[in-house]
Amino acid sequence: MKINRREFLGAGLAALAVEMSVPAAAKVSPPPRRRNVLLIVSDDHGYDLGCTGGKVRTPALDALAREGVLFTDAYASVSSCSSSRATLYTGLYSHTNGMYGLSHDVHNFSLLDDVKTLPWMLKQSGYATALVGKLHVKPEALLAYDAWLEPERPLVRDVAVMGHAAGRWMREQGDKPFFLTVAYSDPHRAGDVSNFGNTRDWPEVKRERYQPSDVVIPSHLPDLPGVRADLAEYYEAVSRMDTGLAILLHELRESGHEDDTLVIYLSDNGRPFPGAKDNLYYEGIHLPLIVRAPGALKRGLRNRGMVSWIDITPTILDWTGVTPPNGYHYLPLPGRSILPILGEADPKGWDEVFATHSFHEIDQYYPTRSLRTRKYSYFLNLKPELEVPIASDVALSPSWKAITATPGAKLGKRTLDAFHHRSAEELYDLTVDPDEVVNLAGDKKYAAVLADLRRQLDSWRTKTRDPWQKGVTDPFGRAR
Amino acid sequence: MKINRREFLGAGLAALAVEMSVPAAAKVSPPPRRRNVLLIVSDDHGYDLGCTGGKVRTPALDALAREGVLFTDAYASVSSCSSSRATLYTGLYSHTNGMYGLSHDVHNFSLLDDVKTLPWMLKQSGYATALVGKLHVKPEALLAYDAWLEPERPLVRDVAVMGHAAGRWMREQGDKPFFLTVAYSDPHRAGDVSNFGNTRDWPEVKRERYQPSDVVIPSHLPDLPGVRADLAEYYEAVSRMDTGLAILLHELRESGHEDDTLVIYLSDNGRPFPGAKDNLYYEGIHLPLIVRAPGALKRGLRNRGMVSWIDITPTILDWTGVTPPNGYHYLPLPGRSILPILGEADPKGWDEVFATHSFHEIDQYYPTRSLRTRKYSYFLNLKPELEVPIASDVALSPSWKAITATPGAKLGKRTLDAFHHRSAEELYDLTVDPDEVVNLAGDKKYAAVLADLRRQLDSWRTKTRDPWQKGVTDPFGRAR
Could you tell me how many CB contacts below 8 A there are between chain A and chain B? Predict the structure, then answer.
């Protein structure tokens, strides 16, 4: 059987191509091809899956992981919603692409006008593009979606209608290749009494109720009744989102595109609890990433490469064979395609990730730049004189109320004081201190390590044109 | 002679209407009417005019002041370019309209999507709208200009071409009423060796050269040779802008619209020297405002009402008889029309101005809110733990280099340390301390005064929906 699209990269996929050289009559389904992309983005889903030892029930995610590749060391490059999505959709760090903080309402951050987004680039190459659900990136025009279906609405968590809208749209595209993003509002907090949209039934969703005793206390939280109850509600929202995923993937199969669509599942930032979301520490940026690529040789693989959300756009461009426009101001994109390493458990050369945070809400300024390797994490806090703010939804949470009402309560091993007041530099030895609480930046024994990480971070900031780095902005430059 | 447009407000103008009841044959020019608007915005022009005792030569501004009304106590509501222009063009404080800092390049601040600008409102009512020169407000679409002529370019200070483009455009409008904004780049610093674009001749401009001995040292600067030389270059740029104004006003007269066009001249923020521009102290926000209204009874008046740039949009709406759309989210506009007080030297009820600063460049965060009355100025610095930044163009200036190279040099009466490190609250008694250097916020004798100003400021922040005030942003609100 002739492979008539484009070359498969990588030994594993080439092997598959050989495997597929059988008489046409023996195979009923079309060969796996590179063609469509289904990018699924959940909202505030931490590394909480059934198949990774969590107590939350996520059968659809577990199944997807069995059919594809689960990355155990994947990271967002920022733990704030709009900034993270902007990075997903541009392949640029948030301090490069203009989305320095939240885009909605009075926060009003937006992409720089000359940024070319992933959907825009795919559209230029003939792809149909659509978004189902949450956008939270501005301006809409730069995203170039043909359709925006079921836009996010407060208190609405109708995952079924999202899946069906996605299915309808996919079928409507006929022979046209498509790039579809499905962005759930779950499991983000909501303004109802459960704090997670759990105060009613949702169509086609069997409610998964959890008891406080059912939850796992993450490393960044204390074991308090209020925290347990809060996590239990969060688990229900995760399970609801998982049900939505099952509906969506069923629609994909029914559309006939299961064998020619790259499926990527990930979350925008860490779980919506103190010490995770809105922080560049491990629990803020370490997130689920599952990739199911038709034709991939390895299924059910656990891939330990340190992959970043900066790599998602290059991956999708690689899959579709689309390239950014000539002379595009922001080339080279800083990330890399992960397709070549899909079949490897321990790919070489994937051992560090960078992250960059500037704002969450407009009045929540705490710029930090970080580098995480296998052994160390290093944080440069640009304004250490400031107090670290708490995202409003987290500040209003039952967990935060419980913590602040309990004298001596800590965020796991981190005191509240240490959380709010950080040094200009933080250095952690992850082999002995995975919770990132013992700051070695002042320890002479680590001076060489610190200097090296500091230099690497500085070099990365220059390469990625960090406006917070001296000399990057020109007071007499051409107004853009 | 029947006045067939709209009612003139105010006793002075009514008197004029009576005065105009003469046989048509005795008058050759058409009666003054409310119709067109010419808004002239200079860039970084401090309160430096010949007719107010300055040594800089500004014959056109002086003539305009003789023909109209010069406000001696007029203030911007912020001393940063894009924020100030955004306020001029919306009638909203910058913490309300979204323009929290500079709009260009990586700074990337913009108006909120649901803000209706002055040109947009006028256009809805049938006005032709155009901008000549500098915009520095985003997004362009919200400004709704029919034409943008001679956009600002680095190192270009061709004031003549701006004036002629304005004249051409005005004549092209025929019978259509027009709203024209002419925004000079002068006297903003430029990236040439003179730092003010003075290294070449400009068409139709006789170069006014100044010697360091020719200048007046403003209250916020030390008397150093480097500062004098820098001010001399600034004066030349001011004079060049003044020549441009003469050309522009001549074009207005030649167009036949001198008698039906409200002319407003003002500057966006304070002079581009340390301690002025980018500060809410007096020298940062106290700026020239000259208004020439056809039909005004008093000419050459000095008006001491404390007027704010927040009043400019209401004034122009009043002049044109245009009202904001029904149900406009940001009503009521916080400012007032100054047309009713044009003929008064000491209008009652105009004795305070508010100001609000959040950012200049994206990495220059220093949020301050202020209230200035006749007697006091009060400043609330929201993040006093931060060091006060210096705008990049000012930091690169010969003045700043001279100051920082001279041990013990001060910004007038203010030490560099006091400039960079401010208290959470500042209170100054302007009757004895117009330089705003003796902070009385900790002085028990002023406790009642402080409490009163603090309360007024807080109330104003609530009314104007300051996102930096607690409780203003809603984490579960509808995404805009």
Answer: 119
pLDDT at A297: 85
| Nearest residue on chain B to A397, alpha-carbon basis | B475
Whether B465 and B362 have beta carbons less than 8 Å apart is answered as no
- Please tell me which of the candidates B110, B155, B479 has its beta carbon nearest to residue A105: B479
- Where does B338-397 have alpha helices with state H? 392-395
Residue B223: C-alpha distances to residues B38, B230, B231, B402 (Å): 38, 11, 11, 10
Instruction: Specify whether the backbone of B133 is left (phi greater than 0), alpha (psi in -120 to 50) or beta.
Output: left
CA-closest candidate to residue A80, choices A419, A360, A392: A360
| Separation of alpha carbons B7 and B24, rounded Å | 20
Residue B477: band (very low, low, confident or very high) from pLDDT cuts 50, 70, 90: low
* Token pair for A413: 């091993």
ipTM over cut 0.90: no
* 3-state class percentages of chain A: helix first, strand second, coil last, to nearest 5: 35, 15, 50
What strands, in cross-sheet order, belong to the sheet with B365-373?
Answer: B352-359, B365-373, B376-381, B425-429
Complete domains list, chain B, with CATH: 36-354 (3.40.720.10)
Helix (H, G, I), strand (E, B) or coil at B250: helix
Taking contacts as CB-CB distances below 8 angstroms, the residues of chain A near B465 are 106
Please say whether the beta carbons of A37 and A179 come within 8 A.
yes
- DSSP codes of every residue in B201-228: --TT-------GGGPPPPTTS---HHHH
**Hey, what are B397's tokens?**
């200036």
pLDDT band for position A34 (50/70/90)?
confident
A171/B428 Cα distance (integer angstroms): 69
Q: Quick one: which of B280, B309, B310, B359 has its CA closest to B108?
A: B359
Which pLDDT value is given to residue A31? 56
Which DSSP symbol is given to B231? H
The DSSP bridge partners found for residue A74 are A307
Q: Do A105 and B361 touch (CB under 8 A)?
A: no
Partner residue facing B154 (CB), from A104, A473, A476: A476
B81 catalytic, yes or no?
yes
Q: In Å, what is the CA distance from B4 to each residue of B34, B125, B292, B316?
A: 11, 18, 21, 19
Structure tokens at B433: 């301390």
Q: Distance from B137 to chain A by nearest Cα, in Å?
A: 10
pLDDT tens-digit profile of B307-332? 999 999 999 999 999 999 999 999 99
Confidence at residue A177, expressed as pLDDT on a 0 to 100 scale: 96
The tokens describing A319, both together, are: 């899959």
For residue B3, the model assigns a pLDDT of 37
- Strand pairing report for A261-267 and A289-292: antiparallel
A148 and chain B in contact, CB less than 8 A: no
Q: How do the residues of chain B divide into helix, strand and coil, expressed in percent and rounded to 5?
A: 35, 15, 50
Cβ B180 vs Cβ B38: under 8 Å? yes
- Taking the Cβ of residue B112 and every Cβ of chain A, the question of whether any pair is shorter than 8 Å is answered with yes
**Angle of CA points B38, B39, B41, to nearest 5°:** 145
Which phi and psi (to 5°) does residue A40 adopt?
Answer: -110, 120
**Token pair belonging to B308:** 């704010």
Task: Write phi, then psi, for B165 (nearest 5 degrees).
Answer: -60, -40
How many other C-beta atoms can be found within 10 angstroms of the C-beta atom of residue A193? 9
Contact B330, B94 (CB under 8 A): no
Q: Give the Å distances, CA to CA, from B239 to A190, B64, B210.
A: 59, 14, 10
Position B182 scores a pLDDT of 98
The verdict on B115 touching A (C-beta cutoff 8 Å) is: no
Annotate A48-77 with b (16+ C-beta within 10 A) or e (fewer). Answer: bbbbbebebbbbbbbbbbeebbbbbbbbbb
Of B109, B363, B468, the CB nearest to A468: B363
